[in-house]
Amino acid sequence: REALRNRPFLYVNLAEAIRLLCVTAVVLHVMPYLENAGFSRAAAGMVAASLPVVSILGRLGFGRLSDRFEKGHVLAVSFLIMSMGLIAFIFIEEKVLLIPFLLLFAPGFGGGMVLRGAILRDHFGRESFGKLMGLVMGSASVGGIIGPTLAGWAFDSLGSYRPVWFALCVLTLLGSAMVLRIRPPA
């Protein structure tokens, strides 16, 4: 109950919903988007398969950074690099932007995965960790449902994914600003 009235908990919940909204939209629509941009089906499949693999860099790297620096700041950086990766994704017709997309977006979303638990533990301890993590993952799941649906709707209605990718860039920047408001526990 204490956590539900606590701003850091609210910020982590909202940030996770934003992160998963963005990740699921991109992961589910990466292949049709890349094929529309002129990539072969095989190349689009390789990119889709690379995303979770490259995200391991973020899980390890941001996990290590969070041991040395304030976790809210590290999480904000993960959102920022996710947003930068999305910018490369928007203009992916320039094939050279595939590398920045993979090297920024995937580690950014991977880093967020490890930081949510670390922030919860720091602020609320271990006693209710499972319940709190369940609530955060529930919020994230709502974002995970909205993201792919929104991206599909955008393509079907507007004939392009670009408006939704731009919107996701803005949302990830909002998520970054939100987690910057999480102060270290007293």
Topology:
Blueprint: H1 7-36, H2 41-68, H3 71-90, H4 98-124, H5 129-158, H6 162-180
Low-confidence stretches: none
Radius of gyration: 16 Å
Helix content: over 70%
Provide the succession of SSEs.
HHHHHH
Mean pLDDT: 91
- The N- and C-terminal alpha carbons lie at a distance of 19 Å
Number of strands: 0
Q: Biggest β-sheet: count, sense, barrel?
A: none
Taken from the alpha-carbon principal axes, the silhouette is globular
Strand share of the residues? under 5%
Instruction: Work out the helix count.
Output: 6
Structural class: mainly alpha
Can you give a write-up of this model?
The protein is mostly helical and 186 residues long. 83% of the residues lie in helices and 0% in strands. The chain has six helices and no strands. The longest helix has 30 residues, at 7-36. The chain is globular.
Question: How would you describe this structure in keywords?
Answer:
globular; single chain; 83% helix; mainly alpha; 186 residues; 6 helices
What's the quick description here?
Helices cover 83% and strands 0% of the residues. The protein has 186 residues and is an all-alpha fold.
